[in-house]
Amino acid sequence: QVPLVESGGGLVQAGGSLRLSCAASIRTFSSYAMGWFRQAPGKEREFVAAISWSGGNTYYADSVKGRFTISRANPKNTVYLQMNSLEPEDTAVYYCAARLGTGVSGSGREYDRWGQGTQVTVSS
Q1: Is residue 97 within 8 Å of residue 4, measured between CB atoms?
Q2: Residue ranges of the chain with pLDDT lower than 50?
Q3: Do strands 18-24 and 78-83 pair parallel, antiparallel, or not at all (unpaired)?
């Protein structure tokens, strides 16, 4: 059982695009901010992007700023990560996460729920 379910990963050539989706089972009376993290082989998990409960505020890691876009659907139980101009360095397992609260955060320790991850592989 997983609290969040990611989809949309796959194999793509450098310069290509992918769109990741995350479905969350969260009660409508609760306010949750959402985020994306990734972990490459031999590396620690790192922050990618976050979005507030309302969708009005976003926060990106410097490594993906200008290339990736995070957004929320209406209703606010689905979050997306549009990834453009992908590079081999983006290869990793991507995880969706949720935290109780309305604001954005780049710290994994502040998130309460995690998905199982979806593999993204970018070839040279």
Answers
A1: yes
A2: 1
A3: antiparallel
